[in-house]
Amino acid sequence: MRIHVINPNSTTAMTATIAAAARAAASPGTVIDARTGAGAPVSIEGYHDEAMAVPAMLAAIREADRSGAGAHVIACFDDPGLAAAREVAGAPVIGICQAAVQVATTLSARFSVITTLPRSVPVIEDLVTAYGAAGRCRRVRAVDLPVLALEADPATARARLLAETRAAMTQDGAEAIVLGCAGMADLCQWLSDQAGLPVIDGVTAAIRLAEALAGAGYRTSKSGAYAWPRDKSGDLAAHAGAA
Amino acid sequence: MRIHVINPNSTTAMTATIAAAARAAASPGTVIDARTGAGAPVSIEGYHDEAMAVPAMLAAIREADRSGAGAHVIACFDDPGLAAAREVAGAPVIGICQAAVQVATTLSARFSVITTLPRSVPVIEDLVTAYGAAGRCRRVRAVDLPVLALEADPATARARLLAETRAAMTQDGAEAIVLGCAGMADLCQWLSDQAGLPVIDGVTAAIRLAEALAGAGYRTSKSGAYAWPRDKSGDLAAHAGAA
Amino acid sequence: MRIHVINPNSTTAMTATIAAAARAAASPGTVIDARTGAGAPVSIEGYHDEAMAVPAMLAAIREADRSGAGAHVIACFDDPGLAAAREVAGAPVIGICQAAVQVATTLSARFSVITTLPRSVPVIEDLVTAYGAAGRCRRVRAVDLPVLALEADPATARARLLAETRAAMTQDGAEAIVLGCAGMADLCQWLSDQAGLPVIDGVTAAIRLAEALAGAGYRTSKSGAYAWPRDKSGDLAAHAGAA
Amino acid sequence: MRIHVINPNSTTAMTATIAAAARAAASPGTVIDARTGAGAPVSIEGYHDEAMAVPAMLAAIREADRSGAGAHVIACFDDPGLAAAREVAGAPVIGICQAAVQVATTLSARFSVITTLPRSVPVIEDLVTAYGAAGRCRRVRAVDLPVLALEADPATARARLLAETRAAMTQDGAEAIVLGCAGMADLCQWLSDQAGLPVIDGVTAAIRLAEALAGAGYRTSKSGAYAWPRDKSGDLAAHAGAA
Amino acid sequence: MRIHVINPNSTTAMTATIAAAARAAASPGTVIDARTGAGAPVSIEGYHDEAMAVPAMLAAIREADRSGAGAHVIACFDDPGLAAAREVAGAPVIGICQAAVQVATTLSARFSVITTLPRSVPVIEDLVTAYGAAGRCRRVRAVDLPVLALEADPATARARLLAETRAAMTQDGAEAIVLGCAGMADLCQWLSDQAGLPVIDGVTAAIRLAEALAGAGYRTSKSGAYAWPRDKSGDLAAHAGAA
Amino acid sequence: MRIHVINPNSTTAMTATIAAAARAAASPGTVIDARTGAGAPVSIEGYHDEAMAVPAMLAAIREADRSGAGAHVIACFDDPGLAAAREVAGAPVIGICQAAVQVATTLSARFSVITTLPRSVPVIEDLVTAYGAAGRCRRVRAVDLPVLALEADPATARARLLAETRAAMTQDGAEAIVLGCAGMADLCQWLSDQAGLPVIDGVTAAIRLAEALAGAGYRTSKSGAYAWPRDKSGDLAAHAGAA
Predict the structure, then answer these.
(1) Same domain, E71 and E140
(2) Who's near E135: CB < 8 A, 6+ residues apart?
(3) Of the candidates E55, E149, E153, which has its C-beta nearest D55's C-beta?
(4) Residue B210 falls within a domain, yes or no?
(5) Cβ E122–C109 below 8 Å, yes or no?
(6) Does residue F43 belong to any structural domain of this protein?
């Protein structure tokens, strides 16, 4: 089985981190096909970055889909372009936020999310609400570090992540922690050991769910919202004729 | 990996059907440990049947958990005793309704559920709402056949299932169909071929998600709602002393 | 009029406390038929305890229903087995949580709940949400004492209850307090006097609502979700014949 | 015990009908103090009629509260001025819509409402949503007759009510029916006999709940939203001084 | 274009403040027709005050509507009688709370409201929920000053408003502030300058939206909930004949 | 005042239609700066088309914002890239769906939307839900014509639009109609005349709201979710240094 993992931003070092986490998470025999968003922003921090990253991501998904990927994983916690990706893929498409939320609601009754920048808090809150988990998510917290600082300054990242985790436990009553950035994947085990709680990294969750869906032979519905994009050449001709 | 699948009702023929579906769905190397709810009702059709089936189901889960199951699957679409099961298990516990809903919201934007008896419609609606998918589930439909009639009268079951599926497509705009009974597992592929839509059987979905969670090493949170049941021997002594 | 009050746990001293509160709450002429859950856990603290207590509770409800009870009250704040109880009873069934929430939303615009253990917080939050009062319940708080400690150590119980009540008033803006455990019934008047707010004990609320429904001649609907459990002897024969 | 029942419209014949229903519903020993909204519209059909009826209704509630009413019932299904009434009363105030919804959610899992005019449908839908029962109310239906026509043309009223009830059962899967107008109280028993379902008249429900709350000694919270209206003579003086 | 602005309370000095804010907000060429609620309470602080103010307000709206107002603005943040006003007006009716919420959700992802008295907090929360913005409103805060004290003691008003704004920024993550009282209109620019955030005064927002709707030629729907109040003279005759 | 109107698709004939509608809707003195999405799909029919259209749209908005536009209108009913546009603009950004929904909830209690293709139904439902109007929107309907066919075959478009409008009135109880496509702007007045209901075209609504917000001096919040995109040159350097 081949799983296509797309890092929608253009930072190849981050793709490497994500690919390593994906390979560590995958079953034996699963091939991870990790790609980088060509020409995208260096990190995804807000709606503008998402929007600029999606077209290249869709191209990568189309190509990987044609070449037989069993499933696609969008490795950015904002799940940028998730619905659009489902339109252009026959294989299932997994967003790491949706995957992490699905796992968190299976392992716990109440969880909190910890992300990078405060500006991402409403973005993630709205995602969690759209995924139907608003009543189960206690709070979305931020360590107030840019995405790229996670690797550039790992000591600070760890300290702040642990502090927010402890606050989530005592103040929020969180029973599990969701890591709200693909770049936090390598801190997952360490944090779980420190906190004594399940800590859910979206990359790990998504790779395993991708294997599950691909393994079961599931395909994205091509009826309705996720149908293939329409060929509009006829429309245009008709329109031109009418004008 | 060993996945424990509990059929909460006491009909062993149904356990056999479920086990066959589970084995067909599982990855190579996964061992399916299928059990039957000792002393439970012959089928689960409503809240009373759920309540009477759960204690034996919890005993089975405790035992399978101690003997090293990597995950547990509750093979009844009402997800009876799901929260209680999570209290008594260290391994993740998957309900087939929750699993099917998670898959349906990944593959489609709008789905409908088709279950057995009309009395189960509000039961399933409330589950879907609790799982946060009320806005994505167009309608819960019923074929108006008892659970055990699915195998006793397969021709009628197929005809009604197909009729409700067509109604779901034309009237509801359903993009995927969820089968709302563990006993429908063997009709899944046939119905998908007929309808040209993804048809999601909860047993298949749950087995694959169980493998995913167990494979990733996830464990149920033991902090908060799903903590192990308390040992109350001390409470009772204190209480007796106080009385 | 006879009201059946079932304490779903097996602690008879707690049944006595509940029965005393029920009799104090009842109208003159109402007979309180208080029963104890045979073989149930000594207290209900979480989903597992609920599940283990429900079968005996249902047997008690069936029996009391046949012998002419005008209504049934489930005297545990988790409302364990409420829907199942409605299936096996012709008379109305009142859960003390649902009753307390109905009274609280009549007397105030915003209320907080105070329960025993932190693990019960999400349990009660989900109930309040299911009863449609999520927007009116400011917060579910816990005194962090086991159920049986309420009687074993009443001084601590009172002190913590008062502290949480004051916090609910100043931090939550609570206009009324709901006591989140049947074992708190005897503290209700004292706490209301201390706080100067309505304090709602579920046993009192439920007894009065039970009298109201029984007095008006209301009966549980036997169409749909709460229909009597089906007789499945025919199904089984058909199934056996088919297999 | 004395229960104050206010008919917010000015049609005394309708007050008589309501008072008769209230007395039929009340426990022995309960005194029904039925009043008519002085100078109000002849019927309440929409928001304007509500608004014009409320000031006189509040005056009646103040007066009845001072003279010792144990509870107040607002006998109009739109629950006009319910929150305002709670501000000016020490005794509990029951709206017949809220009461009927509380009873319906106790007796059934799904209900439909049948009211008079189509223009009242969104009014009642919004009330049901505000009371937290949107997920349990299948549909609000209208017989398309003005309030006063219920008594003026009873044969038509009965025929249409029965037709809508049958539609609610077959199309909505309603398990109980709520009558959406105080003027339908006298049709309740007849309709229930015809339909074989619980039919809930708000006047009956509210009288019994009023007895329940008054009997338990409950009082409206005077902290927060329902506090007594402020005496503003000081504000005005301060304001005049400042201006 | 003429915009009718009704101050539902009877304090003419407050009408003057509101009219000044309205004129400052209006486009050149817009005529502001500001009126005062005859015989209404001196300020609107809670549901009772709303109810007592609405009939005179509706009379003013009827009159202004007949004389050709292009739109009506209800200049009280509780939006008292908004639905009733829409029944009696052909021109669009704008409530300043609804207007402010519409603007806030256009300019920001998350906002907080700051009002006068704590008792108004649940009132405004319920409005924000009814307008569909519960998920976007972080918190409703109160400066704990009566409406009329805003002008009587402006120094205190400013100090408390600024303190709550700072708390909304740091504790709530508010990206914009909504002023929750018509009497705060003149503090809007000052507060925005202090805080560096958009501060939305409902009067300003509503005047501009009123111009927008009137300018586009929109009229209130007269089908359904906001249809003109019915003429019931025929009903009454029929009813009298039937009785 | 200058309002920037961006047609996110690349069909200039459609831009001309939109610009004409915008100019017809605008106040005297407002300048409409209408632009076309360079290199975008010829129409926006689903998530993929949205994603491919947004980057060029953002470039147009940045440019128009720098050159002093008072507000921006995204003239596609899917509101593609609305949040991203708010990040890159100082002036307010109006989506025509959000604008139409705001107007519809001001003029009516219940409305229905009529769009082009069935595949857009869930897209628009999710938008309406995100804007908080799910409870007020009766149904999203589709005429089952591609966007460009609206102009190419106007007779069919009118016939189907009228048929769906009549169905919305009789089956949905819609009190107002929202046109769910920018290309329907020129049918608005005709349809309103035919139906006797308010018909709301998003372009008209948005132009007027844009004037309202710009006229009041409102600016998009630059704190939180809609803050300017971060300059990440420093991050990258730090990251490179760390790697």
Answers:
(1) no
(2) A125, A126, A129, A134, F132
(3) E55
(4) yes
(5) yes
(6) yes
